[in-house]
User: What shape does this take?
Amino acid sequence: MDLSYIYLFFDGMTVLAGILLVVTGFLSGAEMLKWWGSAYFIGAAGLGAFIAGRFGAHWLAHGLAPGLLLMAYGMMWLGARRLAGRSSPMLLALLPGLAWWAIGATLPFAAKPWLYLVAQTPLTLLMIALLLVEVVRIPAPAAARYPLAAALVVHGVFIVVRAADLLQHGTPAALRLWLVISAGEGIIFVFCDALCASHLVRMLRERLLDSAAHTDFLTGVLNRRGFTIQAERRLRATSCMLLVLDIDGFKRINDTLGHAEGDRLLRELGRICMESVRAGDVVGRLGGDEFAILIDGGTGETASSIATRIRQAFAQTLTAHGLEVGVSIGIDGAKPGNTLDDLLRQADMRLYRAKGSAPRVRKLVLGAG
Assistant: This one.
């Protein structure tokens, strides 16, 4: 079969995959898939240039086509960065292709056209490596990232093997064979890549939705459901301390200063709690102005230290805003056989004892757990 027909089929499959990605991207609102689909369209244009170049336009096949394919990798890289919450100018995505257009026109390989494929290899591998780094950095489960990463690695290995063989056995026959194999590998890669990218986006969206379902929208800490799930998991694995805290006179603040001021205090307390705990501790808002912190594997001294930091930071923040508002904290330690409900009940009792303290007494009551 003529090589042009093989690449026409390859080109058509690439366009089809690009359409599927772009449509899926618009329907789901996934920006990465739009960039990925656009990259496929650019790649298809490169394949079209390669086909046209086989009819005598040398620079189309060995200059324009590789440059467009490198730009396609760049667009995929840009899409992966967008999915990870990072952005870069589009010019960066186009630079490798522009560089090839500048370099490719000067390479004296007309008598040995397979050397063009070899010369493209370093730039292609650079783009695959950059893309791989971005894919691995996407904040998604490993099961979502690794299939796409594996597809990129296999694609990169194929390109290395092709370049090595052409360097060793460079002949027109070897070039034709590798072009046929490259078309087959390219079709497989395009669809594997598209499926893996779609899978990655879907799993990331599911994770974000799950996170939203367990996060308090006002303060950014876990909501009661999310806190309960994580706290019960930690309680089964290790000994823990629990802090339950709320803002003194919060209802009065809402009534006199308004709910906007009350919401600001809640956000401040949530932020301070998150900044005061250690990695692995669990912070949640149970409802109203009541927060809970599970100290993972901590002691009474650890819990007391964290509670003191929270009280002091909260007092300093509010004093700076002209408010004199305190926070009361009850602490209890998990005992053998305790459930989370048991721990919450004991910590709540100590919280109420703290609220009964004299104003000048430190608002913290520690259990003997």
User: Anything to note?
Assistant: The beta strands are 240-247, 282-287, 290-296, 327-333, 364-366. Confidence is low (pLDDT under 50) at residues 358-366. The chain is about 70% helix and 10% strand. The two ends are 79 Å apart (CA to CA).
